[in-house]
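Heparinase II/III family protein, pasting as requested.
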Amino acid sequence: MQESVNQPIPPILEAADYLQFKVDGDRTAFEHRYFERRKLLTCYTLYLQHNFDEPAFHYFEQLITSTLDEVSWCLAAHLNYDHFEYATKHTIDLFAAETGQTLVEIETIFNKRLSVELRDAINQQIDQRLIQPFLSQVWDWETKQNNWNSVCSSCMGIIFLLTPELSNRAQLLDRINHNLIIYLDSFGQDGICTEGLEYWTYGFGYFIYYFDLLKASQSSVPFDLQQIKQIAAFPARIQLANNDFANFSDVSADQPIATGILAYCQQHFDTAIPVVKNVSRLGFDHCFRYAHVSRNLWWSDFKASTLQPYRHFFKDAQWLIDRHSDWTVMLKGGSNQESHNHRDIGEIILNIHGQRILTDMGAPIYKDGYFGAERYQTVQAQSAWHSVPCVDQQEQLDSVERATVDTCDLKQAVNFQLTLNNAYGHAVTRHLSTDEHTLRLTDTFPTVRKVTEHFVFATEPILVENGCLVPLANSQQTVYFNWTDASSSVTKITVQNHIEQNETYYRLNINLKEPIFELSIHLIGNQEAQSCKRKSQEN
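Structure tokens follow.
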């Protein structure tokens, strides 16, 4: 902190920086600068709670003033450029709401240290940019069943709870609570967040931050506590192995999780939490949200847990998990109209001995067109780069209709089948069965002539006759994929992930000769694997 005190505050993003986004649609450069400023605000807010340092506090006051002077608290991607000047200070997006929530907590925590003038300026800007716009209209995010509703509503709720002399507080909180009931209903009875774990951390996390303050301010809360407990259990239910969680949709395989939220849920709802070894690091969230980082520090006192075998079908989301002591498979049904959707109905994710075998690429860099017409031009969202069949060289359809569950018997092992007609416009079924040692997949295509099975790997598979091998790191075993007679190839691709890191994936392409595909996956010894490779080379 001492070094940064001697550095100038990063410059404010000007109107020209926002308008540049309208020209090129590139979020990256803008957001780097935006989040660097929020990182400083978060770090100084936390540092000064425990270390009073006059030069640092003076820098902190300048940083607050600089934040109050910003053209807008919104991200460039979230503004209406047809009414740009008005929109800059009258739009409530995720990040304007987060900024207001951070500032109102700063004003509360440092009330006696901040000057009266600065406290008044904070309250004035929050009123102008957030409270008055909230009063002036009903925002579209208020009825959404996704993270936008939860984050914006929860931040506004925290602002209403902490803003002094707010005469209509009760009515405003009623509106906020109504919004959040809509959000909570998006999870269904099984508590699954179809947006994925990162968006559970984001949306449900902000709900918990508001819930905690609301509960402390009044005798009861208008939420279904059993529903909240189900949602709180989500991370533990989708953990594949240590440090690995299912990542359907716009979620990375190496996804961050906020230990503050986990600890709160364990302590207040007696919820099972996933296996975590350390408190979330400062930069676990590349946006450096103060709400996340502060609660990680304040709340992360949790009891250690262990990963247990678990087999369950989540009926509302149509997610299946079969977790054993040394391997886990998940299969996804659902529809192709879910929030943060990929075309991935029928996708399989597989982890063996803690190593991701079949994977999902997760989220790309968010660009302007990704949340519009260009979404499925992006590799990560295409069905062609998920572990699903490709029928007649076509992408899956964007049907709102869900897959149909034909069979779901999980008593002794997995015997599960989905009909995927709504994803393909043809008769397609995917059947999964497992026992302790083998996973079997059978796909049928009675009315289709040309089918290519795709499987996406985190490491390069080695092709052998009617199969492929994936060596396990630091192990004497190899994963063996064996299928019926078909030609096969491997396609390599390198893409940039959500935080602009290059990642390489390998797609196994199996061109079917018959309208049925049968695959078995099991472990073999490395010597047997070598024998398979030699036999394949000889043939």
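Note for the archive: Residues 232 and 265 are 6 Å apart (CA to CA).
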